[in-house]
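Schema walk-through. Below, the input block comes first and the output block second. Nothing else is stored per chain. Lengths vary across the set, and this one has 283 residues.
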Amino acid sequence: MDMRLGINTETEFLITLNKKNEEIRNAFLEKVKKITEKYSVDVMLQDGTVKKQQTFDAQKIEVFFKNIAVGLEDWTFGGISSTNNDDLRRNFIKLDKIVENYQILLHFSLQYHVLLFYQPNYEVMEKQKELSDFMDTTKKHEEELIKKSDQIILKKLREEGYKELDPKSLFEIFYTDDKIREKIMNEIETETDGNLQEINQHKNKLLENLDDLLLEIYQIKPILIDEARLVSGEEGCVCNLDIEEIKNDQKTGSFDSNNISDNVKEKIQTVISQVFGVINNVN
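--- output ---
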Protein backbone atom coordinates (compact mmCIF):
# COMPACT_ATOMS: atom_id res chain seq x y z
CA MET A 1 0.00 0.00 0.00
CA ASP A 2 1.45 3.38 -1.03
CA MET A 3 1.68 6.31 1.35
CA ARG A 4 -0.76 9.15 0.82
CA LEU A 5 1.78 11.59 -0.54
CA GLY A 6 -0.02 14.22 -2.57
CA ILE A 7 0.32 14.38 -6.34
CA ASN A 8 3.11 13.45 -8.78
CA THR A 9 3.84 10.25 -6.88
CA GLU A 10 6.16 9.06 -9.65
CA THR A 11 8.92 11.49 -8.67
CA GLU A 12 12.16 9.97 -7.44
CA PHE A 13 11.62 11.44 -3.95
CA LEU A 14 8.19 9.86 -3.46
CA ILE A 15 9.21 6.57 -5.04
CA THR A 16 12.01 6.40 -2.46
CA LEU A 17 9.60 7.21 0.38
CA ASN A 18 7.14 4.55 -0.78
CA LYS A 19 9.91 1.96 -0.75
CA LYS A 20 10.81 2.97 2.79
CA ASN A 21 7.10 2.85 3.69
CA GLU A 22 6.94 -0.76 2.49
CA GLU A 23 9.96 -1.59 4.63
CA ILE A 24 8.22 -0.03 7.66
CA ARG A 25 5.00 -1.93 6.98
CA ASN A 26 6.82 -5.24 6.58
CA ALA A 27 8.84 -4.66 9.75
CA PHE A 28 5.64 -3.73 11.64
CA LEU A 29 3.87 -6.87 10.42
CA GLU A 30 6.74 -9.08 11.55
CA LYS A 31 6.58 -7.53 15.02
CA VAL A 32 2.80 -8.05 15.14
CA LYS A 33 3.25 -11.70 14.19
CA LYS A 34 5.70 -12.07 17.05
CA ILE A 35 3.57 -10.42 19.77
CA THR A 36 0.44 -12.32 18.69
CA GLU A 37 2.03 -15.76 18.67
CA LYS A 38 -0.59 -18.27 19.79
CA TYR A 39 -0.44 -20.67 22.68
CA SER A 40 -2.95 -23.12 24.17
CA VAL A 41 -4.89 -22.66 27.39
CA ASP A 42 -7.54 -24.73 29.15
CA VAL A 43 -11.05 -23.27 29.13
CA MET A 44 -14.38 -24.48 30.50
CA LEU A 45 -17.65 -24.50 28.58
CA GLN A 46 -21.00 -23.76 30.21
CA ASP A 47 -21.71 -27.48 30.62
CA GLY A 48 -18.46 -28.00 32.52
CA THR A 49 -16.49 -29.51 29.63
CA VAL A 50 -12.83 -28.50 29.61
CA LYS A 51 -11.02 -28.08 26.29
CA LYS A 52 -7.94 -26.45 24.78
CA GLN A 53 -8.25 -23.06 23.11
CA GLN A 54 -5.71 -21.01 21.17
CA THR A 55 -5.07 -17.41 22.30
CA PHE A 56 -2.34 -14.75 22.46
CA ASP A 57 -1.19 -12.30 25.13
CA ALA A 58 -3.10 -9.06 24.38
CA GLN A 59 -1.11 -7.18 27.05
CA LYS A 60 1.91 -7.32 24.73
CA ILE A 61 0.13 -4.90 22.37
CA GLU A 62 0.27 -2.10 24.94
CA VAL A 63 3.95 -2.79 25.66
CA PHE A 64 4.68 -2.79 21.92
CA PHE A 65 2.94 0.54 21.37
CA LYS A 66 4.59 2.12 24.43
CA ASN A 67 8.00 1.10 23.13
CA ILE A 68 7.25 2.66 19.74
CA ALA A 69 6.23 5.91 21.45
CA VAL A 70 9.43 5.89 23.57
CA GLY A 71 11.53 5.37 20.43
CA LEU A 72 9.76 8.28 18.74
CA GLU A 73 9.99 10.53 21.80
CA ASP A 74 10.29 13.73 19.74
CA TRP A 75 6.93 13.01 18.06
CA THR A 76 3.55 14.18 19.33
CA PHE A 77 1.88 11.17 20.95
CA GLY A 78 -1.74 11.14 22.15
CA GLY A 79 -1.51 7.92 24.16
CA ILE A 80 -2.80 4.41 23.54
CA SER A 81 -6.48 4.26 22.62
CA SER A 82 -8.88 1.33 22.46
CA THR A 83 -12.40 0.50 21.36
CA ASN A 84 -14.53 -2.37 22.56
CA ASN A 85 -17.58 -3.27 20.46
CA ASP A 86 -19.21 -6.51 21.62
CA ASP A 87 -16.62 -9.17 20.76
CA LEU A 88 -14.41 -6.88 18.64
CA ARG A 89 -11.54 -4.96 20.21
CA ARG A 90 -9.11 -2.45 18.74
CA ASN A 91 -5.92 -0.95 20.20
CA PHE A 92 -4.25 1.89 18.34
CA ILE A 93 -1.86 4.82 18.54
CA LYS A 94 -1.42 7.93 16.42
CA LEU A 95 1.69 10.08 16.31
CA ASP A 96 2.75 13.07 14.26
CA LYS A 97 5.80 15.23 13.67
CA ILE A 98 6.23 18.61 11.95
CA VAL A 99 9.09 18.92 9.48
CA GLU A 100 9.25 22.48 8.18
CA ASN A 101 5.90 22.99 6.39
CA TYR A 102 4.98 19.30 6.36
CA GLN A 103 3.32 17.04 8.90
CA ILE A 104 4.18 13.35 9.01
CA LEU A 105 1.42 11.20 10.51
CA LEU A 106 1.59 7.64 11.81
CA HIS A 107 -1.28 5.31 12.63
CA PHE A 108 -0.66 1.86 14.11
CA SER A 109 -3.61 -0.35 15.00
CA LEU A 110 -4.41 -3.97 15.92
CA GLN A 111 -7.94 -5.34 15.73
CA TYR A 112 -8.94 -8.70 17.14
CA HIS A 113 -11.87 -10.72 18.46
CA VAL A 114 -12.49 -11.63 22.09
CA LEU A 115 -14.19 -14.90 23.00
CA LEU A 116 -15.47 -15.60 26.51
CA PHE A 117 -15.10 -18.92 28.29
CA TYR A 118 -15.11 -19.92 31.92
CA GLN A 119 -11.91 -20.58 33.81
CA PRO A 120 -11.32 -24.33 34.32
CA ASN A 121 -12.33 -24.00 37.96
CA TYR A 122 -14.73 -26.16 39.97
CA GLU A 123 -16.03 -22.95 41.54
CA VAL A 124 -17.78 -22.22 38.22
CA MET A 125 -19.97 -25.31 38.62
CA GLU A 126 -20.71 -24.39 42.24
CA LYS A 127 -21.76 -20.83 41.30
CA GLN A 128 -23.90 -22.09 38.42
CA LYS A 129 -25.68 -24.52 40.75
CA GLU A 130 -26.17 -21.81 43.38
CA LEU A 131 -27.71 -19.51 40.75
CA SER A 132 -29.92 -22.28 39.36
CA ASP A 133 -31.16 -23.28 42.83
CA PHE A 134 -31.88 -19.65 43.72
CA MET A 135 -33.80 -19.09 40.47
CA ASP A 136 -35.88 -22.23 41.06
CA THR A 137 -36.61 -21.28 44.68
CA THR A 138 -37.63 -17.69 43.98
CA LYS A 139 -39.29 -18.10 40.58
CA LYS A 140 -42.85 -18.41 41.87
CA HIS A 141 -42.41 -15.72 44.49
CA GLU A 142 -40.80 -13.40 41.95
CA GLU A 143 -43.68 -13.90 39.51
CA GLU A 144 -46.17 -13.06 42.27
CA LEU A 145 -44.22 -9.92 43.20
CA ILE A 146 -43.97 -8.79 39.57
CA LYS A 147 -47.71 -9.27 39.15
CA LYS A 148 -48.35 -7.31 42.35
CA SER A 149 -45.94 -4.58 41.22
CA ASP A 150 -47.73 -4.24 37.87
CA GLN A 151 -51.04 -3.87 39.70
CA ILE A 152 -49.54 -1.17 41.94
CA ILE A 153 -48.18 0.70 38.88
CA LEU A 154 -51.60 0.74 37.19
CA LYS A 155 -53.35 1.74 40.41
CA LYS A 156 -50.95 4.58 41.20
CA LEU A 157 -51.02 5.96 37.65
CA ARG A 158 -54.81 6.07 37.73
CA GLU A 159 -54.60 7.85 41.07
CA GLU A 160 -52.35 10.39 39.35
CA GLY A 161 -55.22 11.14 36.96
CA TYR A 162 -54.53 8.76 34.06
CA LYS A 163 -57.92 7.04 34.35
CA GLU A 164 -58.97 6.79 30.72
CA LEU A 165 -55.84 5.11 29.35
CA ASP A 166 -55.41 1.40 28.62
CA PRO A 167 -52.70 -0.58 30.51
CA LYS A 168 -50.23 -0.42 27.59
CA SER A 169 -50.38 3.38 27.49
CA LEU A 170 -50.09 3.56 31.27
CA PHE A 171 -46.91 1.48 31.24
CA GLU A 172 -45.47 3.72 28.50
CA ILE A 173 -46.00 6.72 30.81
CA PHE A 174 -44.37 4.82 33.68
CA TYR A 175 -41.21 4.02 31.69
CA THR A 176 -40.84 7.48 30.11
CA ASP A 177 -41.61 9.75 33.08
CA ASP A 178 -38.67 9.58 35.51
CA LYS A 179 -40.45 11.47 38.31
CA ILE A 180 -43.53 9.26 38.30
CA ARG A 181 -41.42 6.10 37.98
CA GLU A 182 -39.23 7.00 40.95
CA LYS A 183 -42.27 7.82 43.11
CA ILE A 184 -44.08 4.60 42.21
CA MET A 185 -40.95 2.43 42.60
CA ASN A 186 -40.57 3.72 46.17
CA GLU A 187 -44.18 2.77 46.89
CA ILE A 188 -43.72 -0.66 45.27
CA GLU A 189 -40.72 -1.29 47.52
CA THR A 190 -42.78 -0.33 50.56
CA GLU A 191 -45.82 -2.42 49.63
CA THR A 192 -43.78 -5.52 48.68
CA ASP A 193 -41.46 -5.14 51.70
CA GLY A 194 -38.55 -4.67 49.26
CA ASN A 195 -38.60 -8.40 48.45
CA LEU A 196 -38.49 -7.97 44.66
CA GLN A 197 -35.50 -5.65 44.88
CA GLU A 198 -33.72 -8.05 47.24
CA ILE A 199 -34.30 -10.95 44.83
CA ASN A 200 -32.92 -8.95 41.89
CA GLN A 201 -29.93 -7.76 43.89
CA HIS A 202 -29.01 -11.28 44.98
CA LYS A 203 -29.51 -12.65 41.47
CA ASN A 204 -27.27 -9.91 40.03
CA LYS A 205 -24.64 -10.64 42.67
CA LEU A 206 -24.58 -14.31 41.69
CA LEU A 207 -24.26 -13.36 38.02
CA GLU A 208 -21.38 -11.00 38.87
CA ASN A 209 -19.65 -13.84 40.71
CA LEU A 210 -19.87 -15.96 37.57
CA ASP A 211 -18.60 -13.07 35.42
CA ASP A 212 -15.53 -12.88 37.66
CA LEU A 213 -14.71 -16.44 36.60
CA LEU A 214 -14.79 -15.64 32.87
CA LEU A 215 -11.66 -15.99 30.76
CA GLU A 216 -10.98 -13.86 27.68
CA ILE A 217 -9.57 -15.63 24.62
CA TYR A 218 -8.07 -13.48 21.84
CA GLN A 219 -8.07 -14.22 18.13
CA ILE A 220 -6.38 -12.28 15.33
CA LYS A 221 -5.19 -12.80 11.77
CA PRO A 222 -1.72 -11.19 11.70
CA ILE A 223 -2.15 -9.55 8.30
CA LEU A 224 -1.99 -5.96 7.08
CA ILE A 225 -5.35 -4.39 6.30
CA ASP A 226 -6.38 -0.90 5.24
CA GLU A 227 -8.53 1.47 7.27
CA ALA A 228 -11.69 0.59 5.31
CA ARG A 229 -11.31 -3.08 6.29
CA LEU A 230 -10.49 -2.00 9.85
CA VAL A 231 -13.74 -0.02 10.10
CA SER A 232 -15.71 -2.92 8.61
CA GLY A 233 -14.57 -5.11 11.52
CA GLU A 234 -11.88 -7.33 10.01
CA GLU A 235 -9.12 -8.79 12.14
CA GLY A 236 -5.62 -7.56 11.35
CA CYS A 237 -3.26 -4.63 11.75
CA VAL A 238 -2.93 -1.19 10.21
CA CYS A 239 0.34 0.64 9.56
CA ASN A 240 -0.23 3.98 7.85
CA LEU A 241 2.33 6.70 7.22
CA ASP A 242 1.13 9.89 5.54
CA ILE A 243 2.49 13.32 4.74
CA GLU A 244 0.47 16.52 4.54
CA GLU A 245 1.55 20.01 3.55
CA ILE A 246 0.75 22.86 5.95
CA LYS A 247 -0.11 25.98 3.99
CA ASN A 248 -1.77 29.07 5.46
CA ASP A 249 -2.53 27.07 8.63
CA GLN A 250 -4.41 24.50 6.50
CA LYS A 251 -3.35 20.89 5.93
CA THR A 252 -3.63 19.23 2.56
CA GLY A 253 -2.61 15.87 1.16
CA SER A 254 -2.53 17.32 -2.35
CA PHE A 255 0.87 18.86 -2.87
CA ASP A 256 3.56 18.73 -5.56
CA SER A 257 6.75 17.12 -4.28
CA ASN A 258 8.71 18.99 -6.98
CA ASN A 259 8.11 22.13 -4.92
CA ILE A 260 9.84 20.64 -1.84
CA SER A 261 13.39 21.87 -1.41
CA ASP A 262 16.23 19.34 -1.31
CA ASN A 263 16.96 20.34 2.29
CA VAL A 264 13.39 19.59 3.42
CA LYS A 265 13.33 16.35 1.40
CA GLU A 266 16.45 15.21 3.23
CA LYS A 267 14.88 16.06 6.61
CA ILE A 268 11.71 14.12 5.73
CA GLN A 269 13.75 11.11 4.59
CA THR A 270 15.71 11.22 7.86
CA VAL A 271 12.48 11.20 9.89
CA ILE A 272 11.03 8.31 7.84
CA SER A 273 14.26 6.36 8.35
CA GLN A 274 13.92 7.03 12.08
CA VAL A 275 10.48 5.40 12.03
CA PHE A 276 11.86 2.33 10.27
CA GLY A 277 14.70 2.05 12.76
CA VAL A 278 12.34 2.21 15.74
CA ILE A 279 9.87 -0.33 14.33
CA ASN A 280 12.67 -2.66 13.26
CA ASN A 281 14.35 -2.65 16.66
CA VAL A 282 11.43 -2.33 19.08
CA ASN A 283 10.49 -5.29 21.27
